[in-house]
Amino acid sequence: MSRNKRRGGGGGSRGHTGKTSNAGPRPTASACPSCNAATPPGARYCQACGKPLRGQPAHRRRDPVTIALYSVMGVAVAGTLAGIVYVASESNVAAPPMPAIDSSPARSTQPVDLSSMTSREAADRLFNRVMMAEEQGNTQEVLQFAPKALQAYDLVDILDADAHYHIGLIHATTGDFGKVGKQVEILKQFSPSHLLGLILEHDAAERSGDGGAAAKASAAFAAAYVSEMKTGRPEYEAHRNSIEKFSAETAGR
Hints:
- By secondary structure, this protein is an all-alpha fold.
- Among the domains are: about 90-160, no CATH class; about 180-253, no CATH class.
- About 60% of the residues lie in helices and about 0% in strands.
- The protein has helices at about 1-10, 65-90, 120-135, 140-155, 160-175, 175-190, 195-205, 210-230, 235-240, 240-250, and strands at about 30, 40.
- The longest helix has 29 residues, at about 65-90.
- The model is unreliable at about 1-25, about 55-60, about 65-70, about 70-100 and about 105-110 (pLDDT under 50).
């Protein structure tokens, strides 16, 4: 008798997973409160009309640590997005379409996809902004964007004559005439009488107060103008307005 009692007590721990007298009555089918159709036990939605059979389960409460973690993550993501928008806006707002120095300074209303631009296009865009700022007399913006434009040109694999002219103009706006002279020397390697090189040379001399050097550059430009324009260099076409304007000024001296 005692042996049978011990076997019954030893099996008590397994009785929670089996059928016991404490399990209670099995759930019975109920009717849908909306259409009165019979529904199986445990169903949440009526198979006939599709409406819920009971209220929605209560939402689980999150502990304070989880709530704080989600809050920090949300702030971090928002801050990153705000930074991207700000940088993109700073790089694009008020930047004129290229080429800037020979076109009216129109404002673009469409945002520019910087990721779709080549390194040269990005450098030229910054150059345009520097030139526009100088034309408007905005010295602060010139000093802000000139270094960025020069750094952008450093990233360009191959610099053509047009790029060297841009770099020379940027140095001229900041008063670094020694570096302007280096760009003039490079342009003269493309052609000893390169018109854009002579314009740069005149500009640097005039800004630095060297009237004799400015007059010499003007005379060299006038002598080379016709023959150089016949070469059809692409940089001449890109800066035709600047060349024609300087030619008219030279003829009037």
